[in-house]
Every structure is written in C-alpha cells, then in structure tokens.
C-alpha cells in the first residue's frame, strides 16, 4: 500500500491545480478540486489497470462478461478513493485546506445509467468482482442522457433531461481503435456452397459504429482494476469524411447521423414495465452485437485454438432478458463468420450464456412484435425462428406429455417473440434473485420450462456492496463497528455477526444510538436545505425509497399517514411518538397512477406539515430526484425501512438490505429477500405483516377478495377513500379519483385495503417498541450483525462457484 501523507496529498492537489488547470489553490473552485482529485486517483490506478489486464492475458483464465442495459454506478470519486486506499488521506488533506470533502465529492454528477434495483445490482456486482479478484467485466451502453432528473412542481413530478456528460467525465477513456461495426436492416442472401453447406450474405444494411468507453472498476485495496465498457453509437464515415451508407443518398445527411446517435441517446425510464419501442430493440442489439464481437476478438487474440473452446474461456451473464439477443448473435457469428454448423454453434452458445431473471410480473416480460424484429434484424430473426422450430419439435417428439403446452412455451407465438423463453432455451443457467422468487419461477411462472430443464434453474439471492453502502455511506457506524469487533468485517462481511455478542451491552448500544442520531441530524439539515422544512431529529425516521410502482405500495404507506392525520385531528392531544415519513421515488413518465401517488404524497405533505393541530407530531417529506447519492444520505439516518410490496411481486429488493445493514428495522411483507432477512433475524427483530405470497396467488387464481366489502365495513378505510373521492386533498375534485376508482372498481389489484389493518397494527407495535430504547437498539444491532450475508461478495462467490465455475485470479 502506498503511504501517502495528507501533506503529500495536499502538495499533489496544489501541483495538479497548476499543471492541469493553470490555477492557484486560492482561486480554485470546488469543481477544480474535484477534477484534480479524480486525476490523482487516475494517476494511481492507470498502471494497475494495465497490469491487471496483462495478468489476465498471461493467466488466460476464464473471464466473466456481465451484459446489462443498465449500470447504476452513481458517483465514483469517493468510492474510487475508498477502494484504492486514499479516502482517509484525501478527507484529511481537504479539511486541512479548509474545504469540506463532502462538497468536493458532490461535484460529480451521478452516472444514472439505470432505473433502479436491476441497474444498481449490476454496479454492486462489478465492485464485488474486482474486490474479490475475479476477472469479470461489465458491458453496457453509454447513454448520453441517463435516467431523467425529477423535479417536484406543485406536487407533480416533472422530468428533465439528465445530461450527465455536460462536463468532462474523468473516469472514462475512449478506445477509438477498438470500435466495431453493427448492421441493421438489409437483405439476407443464402447460397449453397460446393460442400452442400449454406452461406449467408447480408446486403444493404445500415451500419453503425460502436465506440467503446472504458471505466475502471477498482477492487478494494487489492490493486485489481477491472473494466466497465460502455458502447456509444456513431455514424460510419468513409475516407472523405462523408457518411458512409450503401448508396450515399444520405450524403452529409445530418438527420441520418442524428438518428444513429439516438441509439445511445437515452436510457428508457421504465422500471419493470415493458416499453415496446423499436429504438429500444435497436439499443439491445447494439449492446449485444458490439459486446460479443469484442469478446470473440479478444478470445482469438489470446487463444490460438478453435472457437469451439470458447466455453472454457468465456461466460456471459445476461442481466434480465434485455441482452438475450446475445444468443442468436453468438449463433450468427459462429455460423456465418466462423463456418460453424448449427449443432456446433448451438453447443458453444448454450455453454457460454447464463440468464438472470428479475421479475414474474407479466407486464414486464419482454416480447417484440415478430415483424419488427424481422425487419430490423433479418438474419437474427431467421436464427430465432430456427431455434424455435427445433425447440418445439423437440418437445413434440421427446416430451409427449408437454405437447399441449407448446403454445405457452414457443419462443415465437401470437406474432410475438418471447424473450424470456429465448433466454431459457439458449442458456445453461437460469437464476432467480431471491429464494421465494426462484421458487415461484419453478413452481408457477416457468414450471414447464423447469420440468424440461430442471438442472438449469438455480437461485442467487441478490446482495449489495457493503463497501459503498456501509463503509463509505456511513463512516461513523463503520468506525464504531470496527472499534467493537475489529476491522476484519471489511474483508469478510459475515464477521459482522460478532456484533451479536455485544447486542445487549447497554453502554455500547448507547453509542450506536448516538451514531444514528448524528446521522439523523445530518439528514435533517439536508432536508432543511432542500425543502425548507424543519424535521424533529428525535422523531422516528420512517423511510420508503424506491421506484414508484403500484406493487411496491407507496399507497399503503400514505394511507397509513392519512389515517394517523385523521386520528390526530379528532384527538390532537394523543400522545404519539413524533414521526417523520421520508419518501424518494421516481415514476415512469407514462405511468399515470404512479404519478398520481406522487402527487398525493406531496399533497398530504403540504397539509400535514403545516396543520397547527398536528403540532409537529407528523412530518411528510418527499425528497425529489431519488438516486444513488440521495440514497447514501438517507439510508444511514433511517429508523424504519418500509418494504411493503404485495407479497410475491418483489423479486428480491436490495433497498431492504442497504437499510438493514445501516441499522434500520424493517416493516415488511413476506416477499423477496425480506423472507431471508426474517430467517436470519427472526420475527422478534423485524415487523412482518400482511398477506403471504401463497395467499395472494390464491386470490388471483380463485378470487374471494372483495375490496368494496372492506370499504363498507372499515370506517378508517372508508374515510380515506371518501376524502380522495370528494376532493378533500385535491386542488380540484377530480384529482385522486383515479386512485379511488382503481381500488374500488378494479378490486384493489395490489391488496392495499386487505393489508391496511395489519399494517396499522404493526405500526402501533413499531411505535411502542421505539419507546423501549434498549429493545430497539438491540434489534437494530442484531440486524446489522446479520446483514453480512447480504453483501454482494457472497452473491458473487455463489455465481462464481455454481454458475461460472471460475476461481479468484490470484491472491
Ligand atoms: C438500491 C436502489 C434501488 C433499489 O431499491 P429497492 O427498494 O430494492 O426497489 C433503487 N434505486 C436506487 C438509487 C438504489 O440505490
């Protein structure tokens, strides 16, 4: 480890300010300082990056390529400093220069190249791959616009473009000479060669260049630097610098150039809802084709053997079905460019590709209109068609009992191409992301596929990097933990379990309480700065931060708040522990009901926060533009973690893990990874309520739930729904009617009313427990102690051992 003193670090800052930016420290802005610190990190890691790649080439071990349409990496300066061992010295140097490190690090614009959990998972996985010394790299798209920036105006969500590349991004390196060419559209011609085999040629295709930009992924204090490669779309130019198209009719055509650059123009702001746009399909093929071309080039460079041995050197993990065109694309390259037979190509492909499923929500299962795929990617479509033919024939002849199910298994059915089916058929591993999710896949959603390929299905419960989400985001808690149990937990997060020995020591619990309280004060300040609202740092900080979706049930939370408000209006003297409800959530721009819920939360906030009868006992805060940086501020200060999805709907969740690791107690349904948290900490250390997944699925299958009956019998529910219907919260009386109608006329599809009563009762228990400080703190520390299991290091080790069959490269 390099021994860099704060003195030397300060000198580096002042020197670099002069040499890189031509200014003296006294004239430097926070942004100038940000750039020079990033440059100091780059200077440190660039040689290590080179060495890592050289070592990988020498050892020539199997490498992992994680293909994902999203990488929600967030800000990188602080975590890069942490991982390369310079965070403490940087903090100290900045303080000695009279600067606030937080302000400097905050100058980085989050790389918001993801919607939510799925994209953040990919980022956590990269951190663990490098930190555990696996040769694993990410491939994604360098969207010029990341996830939209959210503003709240008059309570409504307004979306602004997120132009994160406006200023130089110091972490990327453009690799122009590694560009590859992608073909869309065109005609496919088939020839019979002398040996009787077929040859395929393509003509009149539209060509697009894919230019890679590499971002270093720094392992924690191990000098391993892996790569996140993001592809950017550019027009193809010929020698005369004119746009090269088949017949040059687009000579100097800027519209054409623009339409090509659109391919990596922006990230679709949809989370778990399928957005069926041709541009999105183009993006998917663009990612897949450029990545696979590069993977094959690399294999050929390092191996002078046949591509038949690709599975010994390469595994491609596809994050959800978005990159599932990897299957026909690899087939295409092997057959059309490498002269493989169908069978030989299939053998290789199905040993290289592994698929992670992220959802069972039917509206989120991707399909593409057959005609669209055929027009955009004619050769790829032919290959999918052939995969489908062979697959269906195989069932017909070999699995007579399943003949009737062929329409529900066929990759192409009802003029749609079903991407999950393609992904299952064309891969050697299909994994769910939490135990219950994998069980639902096997027993319900994909049961026929499970019967066909039982060995393919496996579970890999998600995780989060404890380095970012504890060590970096909550330094006070991290150092208290280290004071108590020593620093081994940083390399071996399961060792957090040693905290259990101290979980009854009241003087120690006191210290945990102080850390939480300090964090709450910091968040309270931040809330004041951002909203002008004063919140009581002695109140319970009750947090729900995640994408806005009906199944995540922010509505249940706000109904509880309205209920508390109604009660306080009737009896203002009620002795309740003050509560601060904190929300952060973006809604997909086209998701009307989700936006209505945002408006409702903000409207209720504007009433409750200023009602003198409430005397500050309730505060409702909606923090706009929820992203990684905001998550890092909220999570260390949370007392309560709301994980209240309709059971069976949340595949895993990872917000639940981040909050648990920071000592928040979970109010949750038995859904996703909540179940595995519950297995570890027990009912006595979390607040479980509501329908189980089996009960929910039973209602869906057999009926028997009547939302109107609850409305008619529960006065609290009736009151709230009538308040919505009568415009008591609206600026006009049709506002919030859609929420009312959805619950009463669509029979409350997410069981908000069904779980209302148990939810209210659970919150009464929460409040009583909170007053019993030692019990609460004991529960909190118990949760931290068990959170080591949810480090993504554990998840990545499981992928490495069970699916990828790879070992740590050295060390
Ligand atoms: C962790 C995280 C998520 C996922 O949260 P869930 O509660 O699991 O849905 C979404 N967005 C951001 C910014 C995150 O950090």
Please summarize what this structure is.
With 811 residues, the chain is an alpha/beta fold. The protein has 33 helices and 25 strands. Helix content is 48%, strand content 16%.
Could you characterize the architecture of this molecule?
It is a single chain. This protein has 811 residues and is an alpha/beta fold. It has 3 domains: 1-59 and 86-109, no CATH class; 60-75 and 113-366 and 427-462, Glycogen Phosphorylase B (Rossmann fold, 3-Layer(aba) Sandwich); 466-790, 3-Layer(aba) Sandwich (Rossmann fold). 48% of the residues lie in helices and 16% in strands. The chain is built from 33 helices and 25 strands. Strands 1, 4, 7, 8, 11, 12, 13, 14, 18 and 19 form a 10-stranded mixed beta sheet that branches. It has a 6-stranded parallel beta sheet with strand order 22-21-20-23-24-25, sandwiched between helices. Helix 25 links the parallel strand 23 and strand 24. It is globular, with a radius of gyration of 27 Å. Bound molecules: pyridoxal-5'-phosphate. Pyridoxal-5'-phosphate (PLP) binds at residues 116-117, 120, 546-547, 627-628, 631, 653-655, 658. Pyridoxal-5'-phosphate binds next to helix 6, helix 24 and helix 25. Its cofactor is pyridoxal 5'-phosphate. Belongs to the glycogen phosphorylase family.
